[in-house]
AraC family transcriptional regulator (Pyxidicoccus parkwayensis), 313 residues
Amino acid sequence: MGTSVRARQHLEVPERLGELASAMARLTPGDGIHETAIPRVALIRTSRPGEPLVALHQPALCVVAQGAKKVILGDEVYRYAPPQHLVASVDLPVTGQVTHATPAAPYLCFRLDLDPVEIADLMLHAKLPEEPRRNPSRGLFIGDTSASLLDAVLRLVSLLDAPEDIPALATLATREIVYRLLKSEQGWRLKQIASANSQAQRIARAIGWLKEHFAEPLRIEDVAREVHMSTSSLHHHFKAVTAMSPLQYQKRLRLQEARRLLLSGDVDVATAGFRVGYESPSQFGREYSRLFGAPPGRDQRRLRQLGESLAVT
């Protein structure tokens, strides 16, 4: 009986994906990130492959209904297309690139921002067991999208056609999506981040500290003390989750914020470097060029000409 149910659900996935793609194509009149009336939900549409975009990927579920994309974290490449989804459980500096999209069949992605507090609350009320103690895992992963998860996503997206129902029903559909994720094969990765006093949860707190203090000189001892870890343990587990050291993570935050400042047009190159914590303009220029492929001034002019958005989609 169980096998026949799984087989039927597997056959239902393409149908559900088609329904989701049709709804998203109708609800997104043009390319871009379309914020919705439902809190923490966005619909993303792109009509052609784009250039790599470097940005901070916040905790989120990204369900691709059509097209394909790749995300690079450190030296690792994550490629996904229907019927797959991508989950970021913590804030991660990544490079994202849509790899397959056409005007007739654009890249379409449903994004739900994830809240660790909500995940912990759901684990408690749904009586989901915490994961056995184990080393933290990578904070980015790809999973197969089940029919039950797609059903919940479709119910949430359908509320955009009935805005009067959003206050009463959106929270229920959102919690079901998170519940389906937690029950999935990769769900233990989310449980780690939400489990109190787990090593993964401590790393999530360390990431939050670095985001708040990224422009300040980094003393790893301060971060370790803040999250109640030894410096060696912090280094080891931080790299397990983010694929980079705390210093590398801080550097990416600095450079991405500097790029945002340059694109806004409010500051010059020297001021942008100084604001994000660089005391040496030459070091800022070298590290910026290494990450973005061009010196800050030239990159600023190019981005303004292209009108590129730096948001991860």
About this structure: The two ends are 39 Å apart (CA to CA). The beta strands are 32-35, 41-46, 53-57, 60-66, 68-73, 76-80, 84-88, 92-100, 107-113, 140-144. The mean pLDDT is 91. The domain at 2-194 is CATH 2.60.120.10 (Jelly Rolls).
